[in-house]
Amino acid sequence: MALNVPGGLPSDYPREFEREMTLKDGAPVRIRPILPEDEARLVTLYGRLSRHTAYQRFFTIMKRLPSDLAYHFANVDYRRRMALVAERDLDWRPELIGVAR
């Protein structure tokens, strides 16, 4: 699973946190630091959360992850603010399946 980022990676991107993992069901998953390009995919991931899970994470009900929050979450400095994403490859593109901060 190669990481393909249009325009390249940020100069401070910490490659040492990238990992290829295999889930119990045999599915391959990539763990890596978040990128600004993940902003729209965070909105999509939020849309797949159950109402209960979304509430537990944000302590409020939102129909959609607001764009200002998605921007904030996807743009980190990799020192004081860090996030890792888990993604799997679908036939047409990678899909975010989790995020940790």
Order of helices and strands: EEHHHEE
How far the N terminus sits from the C terminus, by CA atoms, comes to: 23 Å
The helix content is: 25-40%
The main sheet comes to: 4 strands, antiparallel
Beta-strand percent range:
15-25%
Q: Helical stretch count? A: 3
Shape: globular
Structural class, judged by helices and strands? alpha+beta
Q: Can you list the strand order of the major beta sheet?
A: 1-2-3-4
Show the helix and strand layout.
Blueprint: E1 19-22, E2 28-33, H1 39-48, H2 51-58, H3 67-74, E3 84-89, E4 94-100
Antiparallel strand pairs: 1-2, 2-3, 3-4
Architecture overview:
This protein is of the alpha+beta class. Helix content is 26%, strand content 23%. It has helices at 39-48, 51-58, 67-74, and strands at residues 19-22, 28-33, 84-89, 94-100. It has a four-stranded antiparallel beta sheet. A hairpin with a 5-residue loop joins strand 1 (19-22) and strand 2 (28-33). Helix 1 (39-48) crosses helix 3 (67-74). The radius of gyration is 14 Å and the shape is globular. The mean pLDDT is 90.
Summarize this structure as a short list of keywords or feature phrases.
101 residues, 26% helix
Short description:
The chain is an alpha+beta fold and 101 residues long. The chain has helices at 39-48, 51-58, 67-74, and strands at 19-22, 28-33, 84-89, 94-100.
